[in-house]
Amino acid sequence: MKFKLIISLVQDAYTDVIVDAARSAGATGATVITSVRGEGLEKKKTFLGLTVAGQRDMALFLVEEHLAANILETICKAGEFLKEPGRGVVFQIDIEDAIGLESQVKALKASLEKDEL
Predict the structure, then answer these.
(1) Which Pfam families does this one have (predicted)?
(2) Would you state the pLDDT for residue 117?
(3) Which helix (H) or strand (E) holds 57?
(4) Rounded to whole angstroms, how far apart are CA atoms 102 and 105?
(5) In sequence order, what are the residues at sequence separation of 6 or more whose Cβ sits closer than 8 angstroms to the Cβ of residue 105?
């Protein structure tokens, strides 16, 4: 099997929403890294040296290649990333090798076999 890594940077209020959406689209799990920081086109506003912005999380999804595009689009819709600038971003990269995914591979194979019937 070939895999893609989907990386989503999202406002923390939407983390559970996008993880649930990704699972409904076929993702078998996620890793969430909390309180990441980034800047886009517009600089963050500060007050007395403290950044006035909500926290962001990074959600990582290692998914089967054929499911990746649909999962990526589902995350975008669920997080409403196109609604306004700074809402979130999601992208995917190819994975050359992955070890430790035996349980996910079994689940994916069973799901693919069920879809073929």
Answers:
(1) P-II
(2) 61
(3) strand 56-64
(4) 5
(5) 1
User: Is the overall model pTM greater than 0.85, yes or no?
Assistant: no
Per-residue pLDDT of the chain (117 residues; tens, 9 = 90+): 789 999 999 988 899 999 999 999 999 899 999 988 776 666 666 656 665 556 789 999 999 999 999 999 999 999 999 998 878 999 999 999 888 877 777 777 777 676 666
Q: b or e along 72-98 (b: 16 or more beta carbons within 10 Å of the residue's beta carbon)?
A: bebbbebbebeeeebebbbebeeeeee
Question: Using an 8 Å Cβ cutoff, are 63 and 7 in contact?
Answer: no
* 26 CB-side CA count, 13 A: 22
Q: What is the DSSP string of 60-110?
A: EEEEEHHHHHHHHHHHHHHTTTTTSTTSEEEEEEEES---S-HHHHHHHHH
- What is the bridge-based pairing of β-strands 88-95 and 31-36? unpaired
**How many Cα neighbours within 13 Å face the side chain of 25?**
26
